[in-house]
Amino acid sequence: MTDDGNTRPRATCRVCGDGLEQFLDLGEQPISQAFVEPGADAEEFFFPLVVGVCTGCAMVQLLHDVPRDRMFHHDYPFYSSSSQAMQEYFAGVAREFLDTDLTGDRPFLVEIGCNDGVLLRTIKDAGVRHLGFEPSGGVADVARARGIRVRGDFFEERTAKEVCAAEGTADVIYSANTLCHIPYLDSVFRGVDALLAPDGVFVFEDPYLGDVVAQTSFDQIYDEHFYLWSAESVQATARRFGFELVDVRRLPVHGGEVRFTLARAGRRTPTPAVAALVAEERQRRLSSIDTLRGFAANVARVRDDLVRTLTDLRERGRRVVGYGATAKSATVLNLCGIGPDLVEFICDTTPDKHGKLTPGQHIPIRPAEAFADPYPDYALLFAWNHAAEIMAKERAFTASGGRWLRYVPDVHVV
Ligand code: TYD
C-alpha cells in the first residue's frame, strides 16, 4: 500500500483539479523495477494500479502515486543504452537539436532524466553546454564516467531556479521517457518557466495514449508511467502554465510515442501537425470514457488469452522462457498471475538484474546467454518494443524451431 497513507484513489485531476473517472483496474502491483534478491525477507511494496481520465483536461493518469524515492534511487536498474537501436536513435535526436535550436551563441541544453547519458554524449562531443538531471545514482555515474555534466537531483521548481541562477537560461529543455513519470507537473512547469530562454523549447517524448489504446499495450501502464499523454491533454496542460503546444511528431520507438514541443505562448507558430493530431483524437473520441472502457475490455481479453495460452503450453510440456525483464513485464505478470510455473525464467542483458527475481511473481532473471542453453520452445517477448532488434539477432532461435509468443496487440505466435 502507498506509504503516504493515501489508500484511496484520487478523485481530482493532478493537473487541473477537475473530476477523474476511473476506467481500468490493473490490481495490486509492485514497483516495476524492484527486482528481488532470492531469499530476501523484506516485505515487497504493492500499490493499486488504477487508471482514470480527467473530465476537464482529458489527462489520463494513475489514481495512486508511488513516492518517487521508492522508484528512482541509487540501484535503479534501467540503462537507456541497453538497446543498440535506441543509442542510434538518441544520437539522431541530439544531432537534430545541434542543427536547429542549439545554433546560437553559447547554446545550453538541459535534460530531465538523462539516465546513462545516451543523448547527452552526442551533445557533449559537439562541445555544447549541457546539464542532465538524474536522481538515480547508478545510471548517473555511468553518464559522469562518459564526461557528461550531471546533477543528481529531481527536476523541479527549486532545482531549476538554482541552475538558472548559476548558468543562465536554457535554449532546449528535453526529456525522453521521464516527464510522464512525474506526478507533480505544476512544480516541473514552474521550473521550466524559470529556466527556459524566451524563445526556447521544452521538448518531451513519452508513450502515446493513442498507440496504447490502438494496440491494447496495457503494459505501458506501471508505477513510473503516471501520465499517458494525448495531444489534447498536453495542449490543455501547456496553456495552463503559459506555454503552447507548437509541434507533435509520432515516433516509432518504445511501441509508439509522441514528441511534444512546447514554447512560451505566442512565441512560435504551431505546425499543422498539432491541429491534425488533435482533430484525429477528437474524431476517434480517444479520451472519451466509452473508448477507454472499451480499451479496458480489450485488456481483460488479452489477459485471459495469455493465461489460457501459457497454461495450455505447460499442459503440453512445452518450455516457455521470457525475453527482456522490462518494467512493462511487471504489469503483465502481476495482472495475469504468471509465475515460474508458466515462465521458467526471463533472460535479459542487464547485469544488475541477473540472479534476481521479478517483482511480485518472482520469476528468475538470467543473462542473455541462458536463452540458447538450450533454446526453449517458446519465447514470450516482454521487450516487444525492441522486436526488430531482438528478432534480427535471435534468428538462430527461430531457425532451430523456436517460436515467439507475443501479446501486443493480441496474443499470437510468430
Ligand atoms: P525497455 O523495453 O526499454 O523497457 P522498460 O522501460 O519496460 O523496462 O527495456 C528493455 C529491457 O530489455 C532491458 O532490461 C534490457 C532488455 N533487453 C534485452 O535483454 N535484450 C535486448 O536485445 C534488448 C534490446 C533489451
TrEMBL record:
Q: Which residues form the Methyltransferase putative zinc binding domain?
A: 13-72
The segment(s) forming the C-methyltransferase domain are 252-409
Q: Which domain of life is it from?
A: Bacteria
Pfam families linked to this entry:
Methyltransf_13, Methyltransf_14, Methyltransf_23
* InterPro entries membership: Methyltransf_Zn-bd_dom_put, Methyltransf_Zn-bd_dom_put_sf, MeTrfase_14, SAM-dependent_MTases_sf
PANTHER family attached to this UniProt entry = BLL5978 PROTEIN, TRANS-ACONITATE 2-METHYLTRANSFERASE-RELATED
State what protein this is by name: NDP-hexose 3-C-methyltransferase
